Amino acid sequence: MSLIRPRRLRNDLNIRNMVRETRISSKSLILPLFIKEGSSIKEPIASLEGHSYYSPDTVQEGIEQALACNIKTVLLFGIPKEKDDLGSGAYNENGVVQQAVRQIKAMYPSITVITDVCMCEYTSNGHCGIVENDRVVNDVSLPYIAKIALSHVKAGADMVAPSDMMDKRVKAIRKTLDDNGFYETPIMSYAVKYSSAFYGPFRDVAKSAPSFGDRKTYQMDYHNRREAIVEALLDIEEGADILMVKPAMSYLDIVRELRDNTQSPICAYSVSGEYAMIKSASQKGCLDEYAAMCESAAGVFRAGADMLISYYAKELSKAIEKGDIG
Ligand code: PBG
Fold this sequence. Notes:
The structure is a single chain. This protein has eleven helices and twelve strands. It has 326 residues and is α/β, with parallel strands linked by helices. The strands form two sheets. Strands 1, 2, 3, 4, 5, 8, 9, 10, 11 and 12 form a ten-stranded mixed β-sheet that branches. Helix 8 (252-261) links the parallel strand 10 and strand 11 (266-270). Helix 3 packs parallel to helix 4. It is globular and about 70 Å long. Residues 116, 118, 120, 128, 163, 199, 202-203, 271-272 line the site of ligand PBG.
């Protein structure tokens, strides 16, 4: 008969804290920020309650709030005024993200700025690459994606995060950055990005829903797990420094799969729909928002993630400081 009684290690909070298997630090949290082209903008985002749009000249407010919560890494998304077929706002040296990066790095050199590299916020059709005959054409899109990444890095971005899901884009970006002397700038690849209903609020935030069709020819089919490993290994081969799994909550098996099958750092992205689910369920009185936020974030780290991009990053950081998680 076993002598083990698991409840002995749950006797009091100190013991529970000591035997905790998952430690979470605010150093591992990344806060997304949405930057709108224009000036003096500070506008609450209806579909992401608690978040605001900033313009490049007001973004310091968002950074100050992050710093107040001990968050030192942000992920920038741009919302341009104009969109066109070639997404030219995305690689314009004076585009909204480029301006915001310059502003942040000038004022807060110690903040790590990651930029989302994609075309969907900038193309009039809302797709993540160049469209020809109603199809997103992979190899035609690559130079554009690489150009976007280069323009972000030239503006001062510390890391680029391609989210377009074109094949070979990591390779194209790596080569372009290296050829321009930016061989030290890391790539956080959205290696495993599923075609997901949980991006709903984001597409409203970024006005980036595709005008025709969907993203299923480039984002992954959520029935697939082996394919996630294929994607991850390809991206490592192409030069990705960090692998991302997105979304997080419905894909924790994938996080674990990558942890077991690669040696790369893994970032999970708890996407807009995950945030919205917890927010709205708690507003209806069905969930305790704080407890649900803590539990779902801990689950991501327990699954094997090293980093978490979360719309709750600031609140999570405070929860860590209070000792409620981590
Ligand atoms: C751009 C991009 C999306 C998200 C991050 N980068 C939207 C999409 O692929 O449709 C979603 C983030 C979120 O839902 O929080 N390609």
